[in-house]
Amino acid sequence: MAERLSPDVYSEVLIDHFQNPRNAGVMEDADAEAYVTNPVCGDSLRIFLKFEDGFIARASFLSSGCPASIATSSAATELVVGRTPEDAATLSRDDYADAVGGLPRAKVHCSVLAASAVSQAVEQWRAKTAS
Ligand code: FES
Hints:
The chain is α+β, with helices and mostly antiparallel strands and 131 residues long. The protein has helices at residues 12-19, 67-79, 85-89, 93-99, 112-129; strands at 32-37, 44-52, 55-64. It has a three-stranded antiparallel sheet, covered by helices on one side.
């Protein structure tokens, strides 16, 4: 059954990200990508990052998940652009939750997918570029 997107439960920002996801889709020329799943609910996220001159230039995502995970993934693709890999890796699940106007208590864990995926993609980039 589809989850109800009540404004009493979710912020307007979250609902907008869920209904109009930013940067959704595969990035064919990505420099790094990561795939993460939530072992409890089975929701998943694949994130793609493109780097230029030491900064994240573009980000995109594919998600199969709840509204909160899709919205925080969408917000993540905006939040990480313009940051260095080091800076992006320091973003926490709270930062992603804040980016969608906060999450209801029962959905706080949903922002872990975005935080984990960004961290793993940055790690992949660091490993590729380490000399
Ligand atoms: Fe699975 Fe939200 S319920 S990530």
